[in-house]
Amino acid sequence: MTPGPISEVPGFRRPEPQEQRSSTTPPGPLIRVVPLSVSTEATPPSPQSPPPPAVAPEAAPAALAPAVAPEVELWGEPSDDGDIEDVEATRVAPRKAILVLTWDDGTVLEAASPTVIGRDPLSTGADAAAALDDPTRSLSKTHARFSPGLSPTVEDLHSTNGVRIERSGETIPVAPGQPVALRHGDDVFCGTRRARVEVCA
Questions:
Q1: In whole angstroms, what is the distance from residue 165 CA to residue 158 CA?
Q2: Please, which residues have CB within 8 angstroms of residue 117's CB and are 6 or more apart in sequence?
Q3: Phi/psi zone of residue 82: left (φ > 0), alpha (ψ -120 to 50 degrees), beta?
Q4: Residue 7 domain-assigned (yes or no)
Q5: What's the domain count of the chain?
Q6: CATH no. for residue 123?
Q7: Does some domain include residue 168?
Q8: Model confidence over 111-161: pLDDT tens digits?
Q9: How far apart are CA 178 and CA 163, in angstroms?
Q10: Which domain holds residue 149?
Q11: Does pLDDT of 186 surpass 90?
Q12: pLDDT for position 150
């Protein structure tokens, strides 16, 4: 047997040409390409978070205005200088000094206001009068005026036998019509009568 081209092999089928296979093989499914259509309708905007609130620019600090004190209602009555006095407050009464004269016979005379002394004194104005017993008659009828206070005085009312002050061994004459200051512990002589001075506040 002479070797040559092999035309057929038992059990093997030669593939058919392309033209013949396409004519005999049933067509497969057709694939149709459809172009995407672009919609011209306006698409509603997607919901978004609300914009942040606008922040006002920080204002420049204003000039500080002077503080105004609140009105306070005061109760009471205005005094002479315009201040309001508290009607509930306890008022301090002015203290008046009393001049106490202890005479040589034990008589005690308390003078809370200007007081004239003598055997039978005649008071004028607001002066008080105090008559002293004087067997020696060295006192004039209206002899002297004693004025009390924190700075008490004695005044000679033009008496016959005069007025003098004894203070720590010193004698101080009292001229008629001229008040002279007294001190606690002084001795005052009116004629021959003597009185010890005490100032009681």
A1: 16
A2: 109, 129, 130, 131, 132, 139, 143, 144, 145, 146, 190
A3: left
A4: no
A5: 1
A6: 2.60.200.20
A7: yes
A8: 999 999 999 998 878 899 999 999 889 999 999 999 999 899 999 999 999
A9: 11
A10: 98-200
A11: yes
A12: 87
Residue 115 contacts by C-beta under 8 Å, 6 or more apart in sequence?
Answer: 109, 127, 128, 129, 130, 145, 146, 148
Query: 118, 143 in Cβ contact below 8 A?
Result: yes
The token duo for 112 is: 């809370």
Residues 6+ apart with CB under 8 A from 155: 144, 145, 147, 163, 174, 177, 178, 179, 180
Please check whether residue 65 lies inside any domain of the structure: no
Instruction: Classify residue 143: in a domain, yes or no.
Output: yes
27-57 per-position pLDDT tens digit: 555 555 555 555 555 555 555 666 666 666 5
With beta carbons less than 8 A apart as the criterion, state whether 81 and 91 touch. no
User: Strand 153-156 vs strand 144-147: parallel, antiparallel, or unpaired?
Assistant: antiparallel
The C-alpha angle with vertex 36 and arms to 34 and 41, in degrees rounded to 5, equals: 140
